[in-house]
């Protein structure tokens, strides 16, 4: 009996000695694997303490260093634009008469601030359960869009700004579906023959987008159909406008119900499916080891970065929107402003993140970051704009021009057809981008 105990004691000593003689990186890998299987729990947060994410409090040097390096090379390059931020805000306060300069500087300034917001949202998402974290990250990146929409609704007084808001709603969806998803398919397909899409993400996303597209189409079709009744004298144009506003507000409330159903589906009833999909994507990350040991923000630093970036984005968005009428007067079509220019800048940081994920073979993560914001724009942001406009007494509705609605529905059908086979390649991505370029050229010449 004593001999058996002695052997066990010798084995434990040998295991300890072997572990102590392992190289430092192997020890870190063992610790990382153990923490990945058994993450530390702190209240409601799932804290991964690998690398430097186990830090607490606020360290200014680490904070600025981590934020500047961001998550990928593309995001780090975007951070070079940070000198434009103070210049843009100062110009917005001091020289509002320099319309082009104020617009151009704040247009550029939104890109690095939105990039910081997306990065901080991703850092905070790491400390939460996977599905909830991804949805929170998507909501934070869409905060730039919500801020722009709300500023447009609050300051908009003429029909031109209403057109810009309506075009920006549809342009945001088109930018995610055609441009961002197309670039993800293209760059992801450059390194491999094809990438496999999970049906839980692609089918649910494309189905919701199709429903949202038809929901946005109905008020426009209603108004266009009854326009002939105004000509015949059956109803007056004021009555038609009032009825269209009521239909738009009812549709907005129904779309909000669809959005909350989408959240319940993701977070409660089918969260295990999405959690499994996202976990598999983390395992497929070709840059996973580097990302795992990358220095990370603490909980307080993540929240601080979100607050700072939201404040700066709000200021730049306000100054940008103020100058839109002046820019439109100089010959830039209002539809081009809303459909192309505004969505490009508000979605730039989010697009970089999705492209980097596709490049690292995390195509379902990228798909989630393309379809998720599109669904949120159609089911949450657009209805919110209508309801807030209603509360402010503005003539804000979902009566889009038929030209733009046709573009939206056709784009949803094209993307849905590419997602149907569950695979993606660079040719499909290139075709999506080319369709977006055609839309941009046509919108420039659309009166």
From TrEMBL:
<dbReference type="GO" id="GO:0006874">
    <property type="term" value="P:intracellular calcium ion homeostasis"/>
</dbReference>
<feature type="transmembrane region" description="Helical">
    <location>
        <begin position="303"/>
        <end position="321"/>
    </location>
</feature>
<feature type="transmembrane region" description="Helical">
    <location>
        <begin position="208"/>
        <end position="230"/>
    </location>
</feature>
<feature type="transmembrane region" description="Helical">
    <location>
        <begin position="250"/>
        <end position="267"/>
    </location>
</feature>
<keyword id="KW-0812">Transmembrane</keyword>
<feature type="transmembrane region" description="Helical">
    <location>
        <begin position="131"/>
        <end position="152"/>
    </location>
</feature>
<feature type="domain" description="Sodium/calcium exchanger membrane region">
    <location>
        <begin position="302"/>
        <end position="444"/>
    </location>
</feature>
<feature type="domain" description="Sodium/calcium exchanger membrane region">
    <location>
        <begin position="99"/>
        <end position="266"/>
    </location>
</feature>
<dbReference type="InterPro" id="IPR004713">
    <property type="entry name" value="CaH_exchang"/>
</dbReference>
<comment type="function">
    <text>Has a role in promoting intracellular calcium ion sequestration via the exchange of calcium ions for hydrogen ions across the vacuolar membrane. Involved also in manganese ion homeostasis via its uptake into the vacuole.</text>
</comment>
<feature type="transmembrane region" description="Helical">
    <location>
        <begin position="400"/>
        <end position="419"/>
    </location>
</feature>
<dbReference type="GO" id="GO:0015369">
    <property type="term" value="F:calcium:proton antiporter activity"/>
</dbReference>
<dbReference type="InterPro" id="IPR004798">
    <property type="entry name" value="CAX-like"/>
</dbReference>
<keyword id="KW-0106">Calcium</keyword>
<protein>
    <recommendedName>
        <fullName>Vacuolar calcium ion transporter</fullName>
    </recommendedName>
</protein>
<keyword id="KW-0406">Ion transport</keyword>
<keyword id="KW-0926">Vacuole</keyword>
<feature type="transmembrane region" description="Helical">
    <location>
        <begin position="426"/>
        <end position="446"/>
    </location>
</feature>
<feature type="region of interest" description="Disordered">
    <location>
        <begin position="1"/>
        <end position="33"/>
    </location>
</feature>
<keyword id="KW-0109">Calcium transport</keyword>
<feature type="transmembrane region" description="Helical">
    <location>
        <begin position="100"/>
        <end position="119"/>
    </location>
</feature>
<dbReference type="Pfam" id="PF01699">
    <property type="entry name" value="Na_Ca_ex"/>
</dbReference>
<feature type="transmembrane region" description="Helical">
    <location>
        <begin position="74"/>
        <end position="94"/>
    </location>
</feature>
<feature type="transmembrane region" description="Helical">
    <location>
        <begin position="164"/>
        <end position="187"/>
    </location>
</feature>
<dbReference type="InterPro" id="IPR004837">
    <property type="entry name" value="NaCa_Exmemb"/>
</dbReference>
<dbReference type="GO" id="GO:0012505">
    <property type="term" value="C:endomembrane system"/>
</dbReference>
<comment type="similarity">
    <text>Belongs to the Ca(2+):cation antiporter (CaCA) (TC 2.A.19) family.</text>
</comment>
<keyword id="KW-0050">Antiport</keyword>
<dbReference type="GO" id="GO:0000329">
    <property type="term" value="C:fungal-type vacuole membrane"/>
</dbReference>
<keyword id="KW-0813">Transport</keyword>
<dbReference type="InterPro" id="IPR044880">
    <property type="entry name" value="NCX_ion-bd_dom_sf"/>
</dbReference>
<feature type="compositionally biased region" description="Polar residues">
    <location>
        <begin position="14"/>
        <end position="24"/>
    </location>
</feature>
<keyword id="KW-1133">Transmembrane helix</keyword>
<keyword id="KW-0472">Membrane</keyword>
């Amino acid at each position: 009996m004593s001999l058996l105990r002695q052997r066990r004691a010798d084995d434990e000593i040998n295991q300890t000695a072997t572990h102590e003689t392992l190289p430092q990186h192997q020890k870190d890998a063992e610790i990382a694997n153990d923490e990945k299987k058994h993450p530390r729990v702190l209240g409601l947060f799932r804290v991964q303490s690998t690398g430097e994410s186990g830090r607490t409090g606020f360290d200014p040097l680490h904070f600025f260093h981590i934020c500047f390096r961001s998550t990928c090379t593309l995001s780090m390059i975007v951070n070079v634009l940070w000198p434009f931020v103070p210049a843009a805000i100062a110009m917005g306060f001091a020289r509002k008469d320099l319309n082009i300069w104020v617009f151009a500087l704040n247009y550029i300034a939104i890109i690095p601030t939105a990039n910081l917001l997306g990065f901080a949202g991703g850092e905070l998402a790491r400390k939460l359960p996977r599905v909830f974290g991804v949805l929170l990250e998507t909501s934070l990146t869409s905060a730039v869009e919500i801020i722009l929409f709300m500023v447009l609704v609050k300051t908009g007084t003429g029909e031109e700004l209403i057109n810009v808001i309506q075009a920006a709603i549809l342009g945001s969806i088109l930018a995610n579906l055609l441009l961002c998803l197309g670039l993800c398919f293209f760059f992801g397909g450059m390194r491999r023959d094809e990438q496999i899409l999970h049906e839980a993400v692609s089918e649910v996303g494309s189905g919701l987008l199709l429903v949202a597209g038809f929901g946005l189409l109905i008020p426009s079709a209603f108004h266009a159909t009854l326009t002939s009744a105004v000509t015949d004298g059956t109803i007056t144009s004021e009555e038609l406008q009032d009825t269209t506003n009521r239909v738009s507000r009812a549709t907005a409330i129904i779309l909000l119900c669809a959005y909350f159903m989408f959240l319940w589906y993701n977070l409660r009833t089918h969260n295990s499916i999405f959690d499994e999909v996202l976990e598999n994507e983390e395992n497929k990350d070709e840059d996973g080891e580097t990302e795992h040991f990358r220095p990370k923000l603490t909980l307080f630093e993540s929240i601080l970065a979100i607050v700072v970036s939201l404040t700066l984005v709000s200021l730049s968005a306000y100054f940008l929107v103020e100058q839109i009428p002046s820019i439109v007067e100089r010959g830039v079509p209002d539809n081009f402003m809303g459909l192309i220019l505004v969505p490009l800048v508000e979605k730039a940081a989010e697009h970089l993140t999705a492209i980097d994920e596709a490049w690292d073979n995390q195509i379902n993560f990228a798909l989630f970051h393309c379809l998720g914001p599109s669904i949120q724009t159609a089911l949450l942001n657009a209805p919110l704009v209508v309801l807030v406009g209603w509360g402010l007494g503005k003539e804000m509705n979902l009566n889009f021009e038929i030209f733009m609605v046709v573009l939206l529905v056709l784009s949803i059908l094209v993307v849905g057809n590419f997602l149907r086979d569950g695979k993606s390649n660079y040719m499909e991505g290139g075709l999506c981008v080319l369709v977006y370029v055609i839309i941009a050229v046509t919108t420039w010449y659309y009166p």
